[in-house]
Each structure stands twice: as C-alpha cells, then as structure tokens.
Design brief:
alpha+beta, 13 helices
Length: 406
C-alpha cells in the first residue's frame, strides 16, 4: 500500500521524485534507529557531568527533530490524508526543531570548550530572539504563507521567505565552529588543542549540513550531518573517559604517566621536565562544615583554575588523588612560589566565577626532572617534599594571623 501511495503521489506533481522520497524515508528511519540507540547508551554511560548533560540534550533535540520529520514525510507529501491544520503544525514544528537542534549543539560546544560566550546576557538574548523569530515567522505563515504553506493538494510548498527561517541554523553552526577555531588559536596545551581538533571534526557534520540546507535547500542531509556529530561526540567521550577523572574532567594518573613518558624521551639538563604538585588548603574543613557536595564544587573550581594556568603556560594537568593535582610541563621554568601565586590567582577568579560561599587557596611543590630514568611517581614524591614545607609555612602564617586578630 505504501509503494502504491508513493507511486500515486509521485504522479500528482513534479516537486519530488519517487527515488527522492524513498531515500528521504530510509535516511530518516536509519537515523531515528541509531539516535534512539545512542540516547539509551548515553543515559547509562555519560553520568551527570555538564558535558554529558549537554550531549544528551543534543541527542534529545535531534531525536525529536527526526520523529517530527518522519511524520512530516507523510503529511508534507500528502501520503496520508490529514487536515490542513495538522499538516501545517507538523511542518512548522519540524522547521522550528531544526534551528533548535543546532542551538543545542552550540551549547554543547561551549560547554566542552569551557567558554563563557553563552554566559553573556547579550548572547543568550540574541540566541533566544533568533529562535523566537522562527516561531513568530512560522505561526504568521498560517495566514500569509511567507515561510511555507500547504496547497490544495495537501503538499508542502516553500514561501518567499523560506530561507530566512533557516538562517538561525547556519548562525548557530557558524558560531560553534568559530568558537572551536578561536580556542585552537588561543590554547597552548597540546592535549587541549587535540581535544579542540577532535571537537572540530565532530562539528564538520553540522557545518556541512547547515550550509547545504541554507545554500542549496537540501534538508535531508541535516539528519545525516547531526548523526555524524552525535556519534563522533559520543565515541570521543567514551575514549576520553578512559583517561579522564570522573569528577573534574581533568586527566587522570594514567594519562599523566603517558604524557610524562612521552616527554622523557627528550629530557636533558638543558630540557628538563617541570613537575608541580598542589594541594587544597583546609579541604577537610570544607567537607565537614559545608558538606561533600560543596567539597566537589571546590574541586571543580580548582580544576577550572588549573586549566586556566595550563592555557597560559602550557603542559598537562591531572588529578593525582583526593584534593591533590599534578601539572607537568617543559620550557621556561617557574619557581614554586611564582607557580603557587599564579595558581592561587586563577583559583580566586574561578571561585568568584563559580559563586562559592567560601575562599579557596592551595599550596604547591615542584621539582625538575633531567634524567629519563626518573619515573613520574619519583618526581611527584620529590615535589611532595617541597609541598610539605610549603604547607607547614602556610599553617604557621595562618596561626600567626589568628593570633594577630586576637
């Protein structure tokens, strides 16, 4: 019956061909099945981290678009007789979910880049106005047919301003891609640059789909483009989970070991490896007074601060365990006191940004490795002795300050 309906409707007009209809249907069904399977896996594998939640939102928006687009396939081509109001509503919802899907991708990219772009009130308002303008234009088309209309035969037809309602899709994709390129140009960390490049690879699908949609009016490729992005982002996240700390998103000890070994191949007296270990002050007191949830927020702020430091000086930062973090780098050296001061300045900015109810500080120890036979554990043990001295000095200063207050 379906094939008969396809042949019948293909003979009604010259808008689409039977081959195009069948290809569109098979593409939507395939993408729908794969995206549903991915969303099920995401629910169990991604946890509740900000990037995991953002990727789930992308997958949900994509799945919603596919479901509505599948319904539009039957109503837009009049394969199933429905009232004109139903055909119009399905078409309008499909056209709105398309830019919304790309907006969710933009949010995911900004979360992955730890960008503050969407924290700007002006940018948030601009994004919402873009989506709202789509809604207004689509609703207005019921009377004016400006964006689209349903003809007497029940077929979907483009209006004179059809491309304008698709413009936000291209805008969101372009901004997300520009953010990735800006991050690649800004960061100095090789690991972070590789992550940005991987994110750019994921974004190629939406970028090609967005331009094809607006420039050539090819809508079917949008499903494939976003499927590429979701699949690649999910696979990338699974690979990253092997070498990332679950709470902070920083590198774990295994990844730090690999990075240290790669640097050890070229280590020498003239090209030493600088190893820093830092420890959060009064972390136990934060857990006792404010609860473990506050302790987790404190660790996230420290992670954010150390990422800022790495972006400035280069290298790799990893969570060593508990409230201890390790930074590994080469190049110009920075003494323990200078490095500790830089880290505390970044930590102060991170705490203000995160709106914490308490003040955080950290102490740091460091050592230089000039022998390729030295392991990371040995280097950290040496740096830890310096850290111990810095902690003792911090406690003496704290005690002296309290006595002065009395």
């Amino acid at each position: 019956m379906l094939l008969l309906a396809l042949y019948t409707n293909a003979a009604l007009g010259e808008i689409v061909t039977l081959a195009y209809i069948l290809t569109y249907l098979l593409t939507d069904v395939t993408c729908l099945a794969l995206s549903l399977a991915l969303l099920v896996r995401m629910s169990s594998d991604l946890g509740h981290s900000p990037d995991g939640e953002a990727l789930r939102c992308v997958a949900c928006a994509y799945l919603s678009y596919l479901v509505v687009d599948f319904l539009w396939f039957f109503t837009g081509y009049a394969l199933v007789p429905v009232p004109a109001s139903v055909a119009f509503a399905v078409s309008a919802l499909s056209l709105f979910l398309l830019p919304y899907m790309y907006y969710r991708w933009l949010v995911y990219v900004e979360v992955m880049l730890e960008s503050r772009l969407l924290q700007s009130r002006a940018v948030r308002i601009a994004c919402r106005l873009a989506l709202l303008s789509c809604v207004v234009a689509l609703v207005d088309s019921w009377w004016t047919g400006a964006v689209f209309y349903v003809d007497e035969a029940g077929l979907f037809q483009h209006g004179p301003y059809y491309m304008l309602v698709l413009a936000p899709s291209l805008l969101f994709v372009a901004v997300s891609f520009a953010s990735i390129l800006a991050c690649i140009a800004r960061v100095r960390s090789r690991i972070r640059s590789l992550r940005c490049l991987n994110l750019m690879l994921c974004g190629l699908g939406p970028l090609v789909a967005g331009f094809s949609l607006v420039v050539a009016g090819v809508s079917g490729i949008g499903s494939l483009g976003m499927l590429w992005a979701v699949v690649m982002a999910f696979l990338s996240r699974q690979r990253a989970d092997i070498s990332l700390d679950a709470l902070t998103g920083l590198n774990n000890r295994s990844r730090a070991d690999d990075y240290f070994e790669s640097l050890s191949l070229e280590v020498s007296v003239d090209n030493p490896i600088h190893v820093y270990i830092c420890d959060l002050n009064h972390f136990k007191r934060i857990n006792d007074e404010f609860g473990y949830a506050a302790g987790d927020k404190a660790l996230l702020s420290v992670a954010s601060a150390l990422r800022m430091v790495v972006e400035d000086v280069g290298g790799l930062v990893a969570r060593w365990g508990g409230d201890e973090f390790v930074l590994i780098r080469t190049g110009p050296t920075a003494g323990t006191v200078v490095a500790e001061s830089l880290a505390n300045d970044a930590l102060k900015a991170a705490c203000e940004h995160d709106g914490l109810d308490f003040t955080l500080t950290l102490c740091m120890g460091s050592t230089d490795v000039c022998d390729s036979r030295t392991s990371l554990d040995e280097a950290v043990a040496r740096a830890d002795k310096v850290l111990y001295d810095r902690k003792m000095l911090f406690r003496k200063r704290s005690a002296f300050s309290k006595e002065g207050e009395k």
